[in-house]
Design goal:
With 355 residues, this protein is an alpha/beta fold. It folds into two domains: 107 residues, Aspartate Aminotransferase, domain 1, CATH 3.90.1150.10; 208 residues, Aspartate Aminotransferase, domain 2 (3-Layer(aba) Sandwich). Strand 9 and strand 10 form a beta hairpin. The mean pLDDT is 95.
């Protein structure tokens, strides 16, 4: 424990916050009023439904979960990842994932005392199927986590390659679809055909990050076993009621997602016009880009009141990389203007040093 580090969330007070893949939009006033009326009916003196049955029924429809599939809810995706790893933890077992990827797969594995195997993506952050299959054959992982789209790179791996991983896997394969509302692709319909496949979702990127609600769907017998690891009453009553209400107004959330998808394309095009930058195509609500002097650019943006994610100094594959969340049009314009200013200042400084 002394060698480990706690997950750090930087203070964003007074800043344009574009570092955490949040939906920047609120709800219309009439929707807020209706939600508050629903909350007044909640009995806070009672424990919540331990199985969140009404919420699960709503999620089945909203997420188009196949009939007969089991559903398990978690306090965000992080708790579901922890449940899965705790359920399979035993001497000699390991968890496998792709890197660079979602850091919590590794962190939770290490905290649960389970070996972690990271398989490197290629130079374009694509899945290297031969290398991945070789690692599976050698290490025989109890669980394989695949973020789809991937975080922090934003890309969707080839679906046929994932099918081959499913065929080769000796244990569970978790397809983490945290950004499904921006990707338009899903493995959810394939659940009936792959008994070891689990599809994980979250409502966080849909504009409900404050609820901390994750969902795991898969074979009913498998979900039944994983449910034994779940702590009782893990989904509080306010989350249950609010999530149901929000999903009943799914058209509002989809309109917001469509706006962000359009802004993603606009921001990507703006980044791509800079010859000194390399922006990576994204199917999520963020864009990864490589820039000279990433840490200096990150600092300049922060001084301008804009917080994005600095990935430089971590995994070698992410050298000189920054990740920006797609925000409102105004937030994106502020980011692009500040980035232009930072790049111009860096260019002028280099020219001055050259003379």
């Amino acid at each position: 424990m002394r060698a480990a580090s706690a997950y750090h969330v930087p203070d964003a007070s007074g800043m344009i916050k574009l570092d955490a893949m949040e939906n920047p939009f609120g709800w219309p006033a009439e929707m807020i009023a209706a939600w508050q009326a629903r909350l007044r009916e909640v009995e806070l003196n009672r424990y919540p439904d331990p199985h969140a049955r009404e919420l699960v029924a709503t999620l089945r429809t909203a997420m188009e979960i196949p009939a007969g599939a089991g559903v398990l809810l978690g306090n965000g995706s992080d708790e579901l990842i922890q449940m899965i790893i705790m359920a399979v933890a035993a001497p000699g077992r390991c968890v496998l994932s792709l890197e660079p990827g979602f850091v919590m797969y590794r962190i939770i594995s290490e905290l649960c005392g389970v070996d972690y195997v990271g398989v490197a993506l290629d130079e374009n952050f694509a899945l290297d199927l031969d290398v991945t299959l070789a690692a599976i054959a050698e290490r025989q992982p109890a669980v394989i986590f695949i973020a789809w789209p991937n975080n922090p790179t934003g890309n969707l791996f080839d679906a046929e390659a994932i099918e081959q991983i499913l065929a080769a896997a000796p244990g569970l394969v978790v397809v983490d679809e945290a950004y499904h509302v921006f990707a338009g692709r899903t493995f959810m319909p394939r659940l009936p055909y792959h008994p070891r496949l689990l599809v994980m979702r979250t409502v966080s990127k849909m504009g409900l990050a404050g609820l901390r609600l994750g969902l795991l769907a898969g074979d009913e017998a498998l979900i039944h076993e994983l449910d034994k690891v779940r702590l009782p009453y893990n989904i509080n009553v306010l989350t249950q009621v609010t999530a149901r209400f929000a999903l009943e107004h799914g058209a509002v959330l989809e309109e917001q997602a469509a706006t962000l998808r359009a802004e993603r394309a606009r921001v990507f095009d703006a980044l791509a016009r800079h010859p000194e930058l390399k922006a990576f195509p994204s199917d999520a609500n963020f864009i990864l880009f490589r820039t000279p002097a990433a840490t200096a650019i990150h600092g300049a943006l922060k001084e301008a009141g804009i917080l994005i994610k600095n990935l430089d100094g971590g995994a070698s594959a992410l050298r000189d990389c920054l990740r920006v969340t797609v925000g409102t049009r105004e937030e994106n314009d502020a980011f692009l203007a500040a980035l232009d200013g930072a790049l111009l200042a860096m260019h002028n400084e280099q020219e001055g040093a050259g003379t």
